Amino acid sequence: MRDRLDETLVLSVWGAQGPTIVHVEESSQPIIMTMRIGAVLPILATATGLAFASFLPRHFAEPFIRAELNAERGLNLFARDLAAIDRLIKRVREQGYAYNEGHLMPGVSAVAFPLLDRTATLVAVLAVMGPQERVNPRNGAEMIACLKK
To answer: Rounded CA gap, 106 and 91, in Å?
Structure first.
């Protein structure tokens, strides 16, 4: 898949501290961003985190969401109140993926897709990361349609 898209792919699972990176496949056009195995991603500042919040049962993500809302970590959050977060989660569920643009690194965006088992239980999230001009719902519509299958 990485070779076909030529974008960086990041696979994450839900760990004790939240979304945890378990595998990275870098593109031939590396983006300047440190994504390493074992890193824990924020819920409210990454497409991966938002995908987990949207497709996991709420009680798993809720404590992490509240902690991020209460923390002053300098993160560029998608939303800063629970009502706005609920609207985001609803939208992500409806469209089948989460998207962010420049939240962790200016100029870098990500599209994150839930990987569900045969019982529709979330097992992991696959994120495609790259330059905003290539990885976005407008210019990357074909890629997004392919990955949603």
So the answer is: 23
pTM to 2 decimals?
Answer: 0.86
The first and second tokens of residue 66, run together, are: 């509240």
98: enclosing H helix or E strand: strand 98-101
Give per-residue pLDDT as tens, 36-91: 899 999 998 899 999 999 999 999 999 999 888 888 665 666 777 888 899 999 99
C-alpha 44/C-alpha 98 separation (Å) is: 11
d(CA 38, CA 21): 5
HSE (CB half, 13 Å, CA atoms) of 133?
1
Locus of tokens 């979330």: 122
Phi-psi region of 52 (alpha: psi -120 to 50; beta: other; left: phi over 0): alpha
Rounded Cα distance, 57 and 121, in Å: 9
**Biggest CA pair distance of the chain:** 40
Distances (CA, A) of 9 to 88, 127, 129, 133: 23, 6, 6, 17
